[in-house]
Specification:
Layout (H helix, E strand, L loop, with lengths): L1 H8 L10 E11 L2 E13 L4 E10 L6 E9 L5 E9 L5 E8 L2 E8 L2 E8 L4 E3 L9 H6 L5 E7 L4 E11 L5 E7 L3 E5 L5 E6 L4 E7 L4
Parallel strand pairs: 9-10
Antiparallel strand pairs: 1-2, 1-15, 2-3, 3-4, 4-5, 5-6, 6-7, 7-8, 10-11, 11-12, 12-13, 13-14, 14-15
Length: 216
């Protein structure tokens, strides 16, 4: 417990050394209309062999009324070393912090003048998702297998919990298609380098596509 709480108190100030940085801009569409945009970067490698995902989303893309910033660090074994979600919205700003160890996920919510914490069951094959940051589906792609990987998804901002199966299929030109089934159903496509190309979530009417390619 103390080790997990320490994750909340000591936040790294330097980026993990990266073997490759991936930078893309995503268009987030709902029912055929763009409602926002998201920029993300992935750093893989370094001395700890961790993966660091950083993202910033704006709703709408121009003159946003809601902005979401994310930092997630996952260890080499897929564990969640750090998760920080900073939401700025008209109804109020909130910072969500989470860290997982074994069968537990500890989540803290910090708003102006108040702070709350809760412990959620976690377990293996855990992914953290959010309805405003879609690059968080990249760890789902990493975990997917040809036979179908059974994953538990937790949405730290709302406390929602879902189970899904991520089945990996080879696509054209080195792309990989991941079929999602269960509580979260849809299709996720990444390129040979693991960069998000397209995400379709039919139940929500959400389609995420690439606006700009990754930087070389």
């Amino acid at each position: 417990m103390r080790a997990l709480l320490a994750c909340f108190l000591v936040l790294p100030t330097t980026a993990v050394a990266a073997q490759q940085a991936l930078d893309q801009v995503l268009s987030i569409q709902q029912s055929g209309r763009e409602i926002g945009r998201e920029e993300y970067s992935v750093q893989r490698g370094g001395r700890t062999s961790s993966t660091v995902l950083t993202a910033r989303a704006r709703y709408p893309a121009a003159y946003p009324t809601m902005q979401v910033a994310l930092t997630e660090e996952r260890s080499a074994d897929g564990g969640i070393s750090k998760f920080e979600l900073d939401v700025q919205a008209p109804e109020g700003n909130v910072v969500i912090l989470a860290a997982g160890s074994g069968a537990r996920l500890i989540v803290r919510s910090v708003t102006k003048g108040s702070e709350a914490g809760r412990e959620l069951p976690a377990g293996r094959d855990l992914v953290l998702l959010d309805d405003g940051v879609y690059s968080l589906y990249l760890p789902v792609a990493d975990a997917a297998t040809p036979s179908g990987a059974r994953l538990t998804a937790i949405f730290p901002r709302t406390g929602r919990r879902a189970t899904l199966v991520a089945r990996r299929e080879a696509g054209p030109d080195g792309t990989v298609r991941i079929q999602l089934a269960g509580d979260i159903a849809g299709t996720l496509t990444v390129d040979a380098q693991g960069r998000l190309q397209r995400l379709e979530l039919p139940a929500a009417g959400t389609v995420v596509t690439v606006v700009t390619p990754a930087k070389k």
